[in-house]
Amino acid sequence: MDILALKAKETNGAEPEKKPTPRPKPKQPKKAKRIVYFEVEIVDLKTKEKLLLLDKVRLSGTENPRWYPARQSLRLDPKAKCLRDEEVLQTLPVGTTASFYFSDLGPQLTWGTVFLAECVGPLVLYLMFYFRLPFIYSPKYDFTSSKHWVVHLACICHSFHYVKRILETLFVHRISHGTMPLRNIFKNCGYYWCAAAWMAYYINHPLYTTPFYGQQQVNTGLYVFIFCQVGNFSIHVALRNLKLPGSKVKRIPYPTKNPFTWIFWLVSCPNYTYELGSWIGFTVMTQCVPVAFFTLVAFIQMTVWAKGKHRSYLKEFRDYPTLRSSILPFIL
């Protein structure tokens, strides 16, 4: 009995046999990715002089380190359009050897900066004439105010318009274009600033005469101005909601639940339509020739922009609504 118990005890105290652990399977070597290299030649657009030759360029685009990207323009042909920022070598109609024509666009400014400069100037200049600062009119009129209610109303409307544009630039617009040449700010600001000073000089002049049809004409112009300002803001909000932040995907704008956007059924650029209506209302309200001239020039310029946008829509979208005009329903 003692011998059996001792054997049982030895058996119970023995360690269990360890199972052999399976060896890990060797990982298969990854297949080497095929890398395609390009040979890129950069040629000056004007002189046709070879600027540099880049060897073993990968699929992503290339930039000249001497200029920051915004001021560089690259083309496949001297008469072709500039290549877009999102285009890469793989998608371009070139072989493994490509020649690009380079041009320096000059110093650049963001579009937002230019928009703000365009709006702040007219706002400040108009108020200078409204308060009749010295050296504008005769000294006896310095810091005096007009006796006509329409003059004060015009100042409120003009200031509201440009304050609205400043706030829209800061908080509403999603500007798809990155920059514009620095020289453009002088042209753009010169136009808006001089026009504002010209119309402000006559509207706030001590000898200004009120509209021929009196208060009824002023009220009509005011109602048109307010209606179109609300419509213009509604269109800008609708266009903002059409674009996702940081996205460059373009979509067809359609009317929303906001009645002011229903004009999208008839025109491609209703923001310009409402902008034109606002200045027509301001012209009727003030009965001022410089305002009428500014409205006419603005209409011509906005028509050019609207026609270009309309052609772009027709080119990009095959299902674009055929009923739409550029800026004026059924007319233009």
How does this model look, in words?
By secondary structure, this protein is of the alpha+beta class. Helices cover 45% and strands 10% of the residues. α2 (111-130) runs parallel beside α4 (183-203). The longest helix has 29 residues, at 214-242. The protein starts with a helix and ends in a 16-residue tail after the last helix. Residues 3-11 have low confidence and may be disordered.
First and last CA, distance:
117 Å
Query: If helices are DSSP runs of H or I spanning 4 or more residues, what is the number of helices?
Result: 7
The chain-level structural class is alpha+beta
In spatial order, strands of the major sheet run 2-1-4-3
Coarse morphology? elongated
Beta-strand percent range: 5-15%
What's the gyration radius in Å? 34 Å
**H-E order:** HEEEEEHHEHHHH
> What share of the residues lie within helices?
40-55%
| Beta strands, count | 6
Q: Could you list the spans in which at least 5 consecutive residues all have pLDDT below 50?
A: 3-11
Mean pLDDT score, rounded? 84
Sheet with most strands: 4 strands, mixed
Q: Gist?
A:
The protein contains seven helices and six strands; from the N terminus they run αβββββααβαααα. The chain is of the alpha+beta class and 332 residues long.
